Each structure stands twice: as C-alpha cells, then as structure tokens.
C-alpha cells in the first residue's frame, strides 16, 4: 500500500505512522475521498486544532459492516476562495408549552428564515431548516419519547461487478429535520451509493416500519456532511436543530442512533469538550463536540441531543485504542450543529457548498522520500490537472509541477493547502512555490501567483 491509499479501516496510511487515529462509528463506511471540485463555504472556526494527535497510541477509525475503503488520491483543489462565515445571529428560541413535552410530532413551520449562511437570502428563504428550538427541559425518558422517531436507519447499496442490482454495503443513521423528509447524515455514509434507502418507524405501530428510497441532494466530504430526501404524503416526525453556541462542558446530552445489528439505541453522557478537531482536520472542516455518551458502529449520522430535544451535533467518529497499551473509553465526537447549518442549507438548496476557496487543480500528495528522489528536499502536491475555466489556467502553473509551499508556508498534503487558502477570499492571490522539470529532466524551483475563485461543479 502506498502513502496515498487507505487501509481496510478507511484511513490514510499516514494515520498509522502518526499513531493518533480517528475512528468513525458507522456502518463501516470508510472516510470518503475529498473532492474539492465542489464549492463549499468556509466555516466558523472553533479552535479545532489537533485534538488527539500524539495523545493516544493506536487509536483508529472504527469500521462498520460495509468496509468501504479504497485509494484516496487525486484530490481536487478548485480555485474558490470565500470569506469564512461567522455566525452573526443565532436561531430564535420558540415558544414551547408543557404540551410539547409529550407531543412527538414537531409540526412544520412555514416561511422560516435562517441567516447563518453565505447563501443569498433569496435562496435561504426557500430553505426549510426550522429556526425554532425546544425550551422545555425533559427527563431522559421524556426525551427519548420526543425524539425516538426522528433518527432513522439508512442503507447504502453499491453497484458491484457481476450484479444487475446494487448490493447492500452498509447501514448507518440520519436525523430527519423537516416534516417533508429532509435528512442530515455523514458524507461517508452516502459515499459511493448507487441507491440509498431509509427505514422510518410506523408512528402508530412500533412493530412496523416503512422503507423509502432516498435522493442524495448533496454531500460534502470536507465537513463529512450530506443531505438526503425522502418523500410521502404524510408528514414525518422531525428534530429541531438547536443552538450549539450555548453548550457548556459538563452539560447532559444523549445520543440516538442505529448501532450495528440494532435499531434506535439511546445512550446518555455529558459534553466532555468543545471545539475539538474534525475527522480529517481540513481547512474546511467543522469543529466537533466531544462526548462520553456511548457511540458504536452504525451511529454515524445520528444525533447528539441536549435535554430539551434539540440537535446539538451530528455523530461523526470516536477514538479507540488498538495498541493494548491503555484503556480508551468515552471519546466520541459530533459535528457542531451551528457550524453544520450553513453547510446543510447549501446542500439542500444548491446541492453543493458554496463560497469555498480552492486552487482549481487536481493534486496528489507525494512523500518526502519521493521528493528527495527527484531532487526536492521535501514532499508536496503533484499537479495532475488544471481547470481551464479558472484563473489558475492563466497563472503559468503547469501539469507536472510539484507545489511545496504557499505564501512561504511549506505544504505536504491537500489538507495543508486547504488550511492556508481557506483564510483567503475569492479574488485574492496566493504565491505558490513549485518545482518544475527543466529541459534535462531536473526539478528546479519557481514562483507562480494564482488568483483564487469560487469552486464550481463539473
């Protein structure tokens, strides 16, 4: 396996050399290949600096039943810089009466505005994220009764050679957040799906379920979020997306998901930490909430709820110790919901995430060893493709160049590039240090200035 490949757990091999490894608790969906040909808006930063790097020996990503892995090379870095979206307003708290406590169906609101996104207001007005929140404190028993139908079971079916029909590859969870069937889950849950189905409880008969084929509206691997849609005449019970800015360490929370081989498992714990690292720790990733509530395979895409019944986060990964040298328990992580909301809005309304910086190239990371073999004293990112519709096409950058620094900061991976350009705006420029082959085949350094522009779909 080379450095660009993922192992059977869906992790780049570099995670194993670095020892600190993230474990995603899903139905064995490996972390998806990052495609930066998709526009995506920068997120509100919350100090998601390397949470676990070097802390846990042998912690790795949890697999699931699917075992989705594969090569993770050829990432796309399209030139689209956007201003990071800071939250200038928070969702208003709705008026909840005592009768809400036992009312399992959260009824739809109309004309809801949500203003935590870089998406134009005309588009936001069409989005259906409810800006209300529950305000009645619940016991654990009451909380479960209120939310039990809002987290649903997802099945991912993949095409395989020799089969006329897609084959079940894994299962995971999703949170229904509108009455008309919009569901948020993880990008790695829908990765590679030829078909997605959703199992919804029968609200009148707990022993019955209904299964619906879902449409994948959009998926963003940088934040590991996706939105899918199911449709029927009757409304769905749904959860309200809360205000995670009000979370405090030590606060009680509960997790609802569909662990492997089970349906609708409910666990409780506390908020153990805030502003933790995203799974891939990319420049575009959302920070995460750490919790000690039990998280298992199949929980990916499920909900982290406060004791009012509001979604505070989307379950993403956990850490486990595989070295046998220490005991690691209670390290689960959920994508912070306030940072997720602009992403969800864009995926609902656009099918991709807008306003995100990039270089307009497809690149592949090379190791320091490979660089040294070619006369370069470091690793870097090999330029495999240049988008001719982007300003980068006029910059002088060439296919075959190896990028080793941006604005004087050394880079070795796609994530390094993201972290730097995510701090820029569309129309700004960055200076690339690149190594280029000369006429006799030797790599020599040169400088290239690239104007950043918004990412666009193929």
Structural account:
The chain is 10% helix and 28% strand. It has helices spanning 14-18, 121-124, 140-147, 187-190, 337-349, 368-373, 414-421; strands spanning 75-77, 151-158, 167-176, 182-185, 195-201, 209-220, 225-229, 240-241, 252-257, 265-276, 288-291, 303-305, 310-318, 332-336, 361-366, 380-386, 402-406, 409-410, 429-437, 443-451. The longest helix is centred in the last third of the chain and has 13 residues, at 337-349. Mean pLDDT is 74; it is low at 1-126.
**Which residue ranges are poorly predicted, with pLDDT under 50 across at least 5 consecutive positions?**
1-126
Rg, Å, rounded: 22 Å
Mean pLDDT over all positions = 74
* CATH class label of the largest domain: Mainly Beta
Largest sheet: 7 strands, antiparallel
Tally of DSSP β-strands: 20
CATH architecture of the largest domain: Beta Barrel
Distance between the termini: 30 Å
Query: Which descriptor suits the 3D outline?
Result: elongated
Give the count of structural domains: 2
Structural class: mainly beta
């Amino acid at each position: 396996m080379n450095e660009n490949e993922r192992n059977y757990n869906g992790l780049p091999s570099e995670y194993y050399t670095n020892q600190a490894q993230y474990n995603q608790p899903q139905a064995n969906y490996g972390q998806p290949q990052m495609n930066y040909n998709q526009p995506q808006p920068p997120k509100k930063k919350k100090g998601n600096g390397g949470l676990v790097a070097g802390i846990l020996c042998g912690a790795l990503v949890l697999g699931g039943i699917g075992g989705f892995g594969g090569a993770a090379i050829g990432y796309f870095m399209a030139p689209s810089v956007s201003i990071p979206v800071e939250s200038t307003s928070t969702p208003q708290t709705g008026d909840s009466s005592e009768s809400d406590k036992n009312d399992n169906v959260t009824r739809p609101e109309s004309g809801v505005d949500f203003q935590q996104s870089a998406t134009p207001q005309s588009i936001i007005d069409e989005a259906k994220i409810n800006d209300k929140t529950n305000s009645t404190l619940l016991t654990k028993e009451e909380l479960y009764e209120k939310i039990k139908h809002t987290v649903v079971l997802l099945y991912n079916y993949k095409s395989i050679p020799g089969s006329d029909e897609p084959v079940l590859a894994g299962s995971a969870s999703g949170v229904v957040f509108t009455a008309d069937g919009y569901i948020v889950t993880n990008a790695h849950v829908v990765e590679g799906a030829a078909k997605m189905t959703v199992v919804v409880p029968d609200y009148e008969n707990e022993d019955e379920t209904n299964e619906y084929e879902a449409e994948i509206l959009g998926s963003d691997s940088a934040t590991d979020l996706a939105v899918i849609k199911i449709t029927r005449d009757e409304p769905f019970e749904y959860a309200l997306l809360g205000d995670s800015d009000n979370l405090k360490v030590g606060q009680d929370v509960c997790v609802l998901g569909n662990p492997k081989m089970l349906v609708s498992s409910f666990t409780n714990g506390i908020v153990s930490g805030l502003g933790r690292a995203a799974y891939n720790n990319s420049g575009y990733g959302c920070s995460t909430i750490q919790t000690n509530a039990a998280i298992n395979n199949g929980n990916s895409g499920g909900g982290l709820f406060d004791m009012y019944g509001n979604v505070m986060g989307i379950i993403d990964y956990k850490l486990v110790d595989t070295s046998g040298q220490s005991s690691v328990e209670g390290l689960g992580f959920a994508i912070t919901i306030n940072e997720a909301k602009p992403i969800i809005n864009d995926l609902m309304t656009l099918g991709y995430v807008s306003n995100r910086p990039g270089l307009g190239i497809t690149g592949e990371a090379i190791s320091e060893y490979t660089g040294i073999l070619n006369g370069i004293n470091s690793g870097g990112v090999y330029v495999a493709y240049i988008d001719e519709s982007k300003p980068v096409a006029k910059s002088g950058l060439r296919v075959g160049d190896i990028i080793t620094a941006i604005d004087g900061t050394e880079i070795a991976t796609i994530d390094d590039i993201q972290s730097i350009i995510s701090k820029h705006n569309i129309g700004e420029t960055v200076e690339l240090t690149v190594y280029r082959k000369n006429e006799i085949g030797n790599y020599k350094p040169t400088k290239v200035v690239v104007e950043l522009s918004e990412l666009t779909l193929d």
